Amino acid sequence: MPDSENANVIYRRIGNTTYKLRVHFSGEATETMEEKILRLIRSEALDKREKRGIISTATNDPAA
């Protein structure tokens, strides 16, 4: 269980359901929340592209 100084509880209501979210922030994290969110979005986008077979590798080589 996370210690209380690094944990927060957030309540979100969607429709008739209320969700209780416990959020924990690591004191040892090396990336900012913005960096983490962008990394997760990029990773998800790449996963979806690979599943669709449209992944391409970026290159600076004009012959490629």
Radius of gyration: 19 Å
SS-based class:
alpha+beta
| Element order: H for helix, E for strand | EEH
Q: What is the tally of beta strands?
A: 2
Total count of helical runs of at least 4 residues: 1
Query: Structurally, how many domains make up the residues?
Result: 1
Shape: flat
Percent in helix: 25-40%
Main β-sheet: number of strands, strand sense, barrel status? Answer: 2 strands, antiparallel
Give the integer mean of the pLDDT values: 77
As residue ranges, the low-confidence spans are none
**End-to-end Cα distance:** 51 Å
Percentage of β-strand residues: 25-35%
* Widest beta sheet: strand line-up: 1-2
Account of the 3D structure:
The protein has 64 residues and is α+β, with helices and mostly antiparallel strands. The chain has one domain (4-52). Helix content is 31%, strand content 25%. The chain contains one helix and two strands. The protein has one helix spanning 33-52; strands at residues 7-14, 17-24. Strands 1-2 form a two-stranded antiparallel ribbon. A hairpin with a 2-residue loop joins β1 and β2.
Helix and strand topology:
Layout: E1 7-14, E2 17-24, H1 33-52
Antiparallel strand pairs: 1-2
List the defining traits of the structure above.
flat; 64 residues; two-stranded antiparallel ribbon; alpha+beta; 25% strand
In brief, what are we looking at here?
It contains 1 helix and 2 strands. It has 64 residues and is an alpha+beta fold.
